[in-house]
Amino acid sequence: MLRDMGVETELVDNSTPPEEVEADGVVLSGGPTIEEIGESAAYLDAGVPVLGICLGMQIIADALGGSVGEGEYGGYADVTVDILDDEDPLVGSLAPETRVWASHADEVTELPDGFTLTGRSDVCEIESMSDADRDLYGVQWHPEVAHTEEGEAVFENFVARCE
To answer: Which of 43-67 are b and which e, b meaning 16 or more Cβ less than 10 Å from the residue's Cβ?
Structure first.
């Protein structure tokens, strides 16, 4: 989706250290398990905005002292997310709610210090989180898929943080 928006992107293997990457922002995307994240957590200190999607959000939470656990729902579902902060730079423009496609097999169960809860749903208490001071953001859902109604807006808001 970022490429479709005209953003120059490069896929980087998760074994690549951040000092080998020149970027204005980083998206940590999904994957099979938190045990296979490679160097992903090191990008949180790279000095650029970071957007964690699904497992990427869980990486952020785990690396910064939050908690990740098995979700009660599991699997993919169409979910309505209540946006809790209409001033949030990542998801505020989606307020008061948005429909998303999300996986809840694993999810963030406790926010790391410095993060604000910005979205919740009936199936997941922490659907999105932000630490705008450090430009670190996470969404449990997948903004890149057609089933997520306002996914492009999430990416537009993230790109604005990277400029």
So the answer is: bbeeebbbbbbbbbbbbbbbbbebe
Task: Count how many Cα atoms sit within 13 Å of the Cα of residue 87 in the half-sphere of its side chain.
Answer: 3
Annotated catalytic residue, options 54, 107, 124, 127: 54
Residue 13 lies in a domain: no
Average pLDDT in the chain: 92
Task: Tell me, yes or no, if 142 is annotated catalytic.
Answer: yes
Number of domains comprising the chain: 1
Give the structural domain span for 92. 18-162
Is 54 catalytic? The answer is yes
CATH code for position 145: 3.40.50.880
Nearest to 144 by CA among 28, 18, 15, 17: 28
The predicted pLDDT at position 32 comes to 65
- In this prediction the pTM is 0.93
**CB atoms closer than 10 angstroms to residue 81:** 26
Catalytic residue among 36, 142, 150, 162: 142
Q: pLDDT > 70: what percent of the chain?
A: 99
Helices (H) and strands (E) in the chain, counts: 2, 9
- Among residues 107, 127, 144, 150, the one annotated as catalytic is 144
Residue 38 confidence (pLDDT):
82
